Amino acid sequence: MKAVTWQGPRKVSVDTVPDPFIQQPNDAIIEVTSTAICGSDLHLYEVLGPFMTPGDIVGHEPMGRVVEAGASSNLRPGDRVVIPFQIACGDCYFCAQGLQTQCETTQVKEQGSGAPLFGYSQLYGSVPGGQAQYLRVPHADYGPIKVGDELPDHRYLFLSDVLPTAWQAVAYAQRSPGDSVAVLGLGPIGQFAARIAKHQGLTVYAIDPVQERREMAARHGILVYDNTDSTVNAIREATQGRGPDAVIDAVGMEAHGDPQSAFAKFAQRTVQFLPDKLGQPVMDKAGLDRLGALYTGIDLVRRGGTLSLSGVYGGQASPLPMLSLFDKQLQVTMGQANVKRWVDDLLPLVEDPRDPLGVDDFVTHRLPLEQAPAAYEMFQKKTDGCIKVVLEPQQLP
């Protein structure tokens, strides 16, 4: 089969790799009909190289049709399914708590990490990912989300990651209708976090330096701002001088704008080119994030407010302004999205003919799998109005 493989920093390729096969009775094999490039994939592309091996199959936002089902998978050939990005058992203590990302059965204990993720480095189990023509799905008796046949793929595809991540970001902001929230970053997660917050009755301010992203969010009733020096003051003035009740950071480790950004960016890129045996310990013990978005959130949110972090952070030595956090009495919530916890809330919304979250206004580029290298570069550089790329593995070039 054809699959997108990681080959080095800022380099992916489409290669012929062995077809997956059933390994456990609760496995399934799906033919991937749509698979998206996530902002988190760019962290592999740019920062997390020390935990990757050339040839690793990437991607964690797939859906498709079951072509082979293990005896205890609870699936049948022909079932149409969306695959959550994490692999969880559904039966353990943490799964019962709605914390599927911490699944005790599947935790990547050798790395000290939670549940494995499709296509996401040694840190999360080195599981082959979903930017491929076919995908083996472990724990298919629990993970896959069965969907109907009436709607196009894009109505369901983002249940794999983007929608649950955005929904959790808003839930973790701990707000009520009438409150205010600022969303930092209007990439895929920020777009839906802003729309979900608006749908739930919040006043939403959003900051992003890219005009096309601001325009997309504005179409859905979001109050948008460029990332300029005056933006924080403008939003603070709009919220009685206090700042919004919550801030959602949808940017993460590769932000710009804080005093340490230039040094952290240099450190991140330097580590990429160290041999893995040297680079991994550096990332494990002394890795730095670029914290511009987080610093902005700490400054902007009102005293006693909440910071909800959905952007991925990976630095173990990132400096935090503890005085400001403590003095402002802020709550900080964070973590990978627990996909299955939120599906029952989201499925009626994506199937609603009125499309309340604007799923039809999200995908900017649909491309065959063969064009993945160009798509990664376009997405990273934010060219051609690129906000969300969907790859179609069964579309022949």
Automatic annotation (TrEMBL):
Keywords annotated in UniProt: Metal-binding, Oxidoreductase, Zinc
Residues in Alcohol dehydrogenase-like N-terminal domain copies: 24-143
InterPro entries in UniProt: ADH-like_C (IPR013149), ADH-like_N (IPR013154), ADH_Zn_CS (IPR002328), GroES-like_sf (IPR011032), NAD(P)-bd_dom_sf (IPR036291)
Location of the Alcohol dehydrogenase-like C-terminal domain: 188-254
Superkingdom of this protein's organism: Bacteria
GO molecular function: oxidoreductase activity; zinc ion binding
Family to which the UniProt record says this protein belongs: Belongs to the zinc-containing alcohol dehydrogenase family.
UniProt name for this protein: Glutathione-dependent formaldehyde dehydrogenase
Organism: Nesterenkonia natronophila
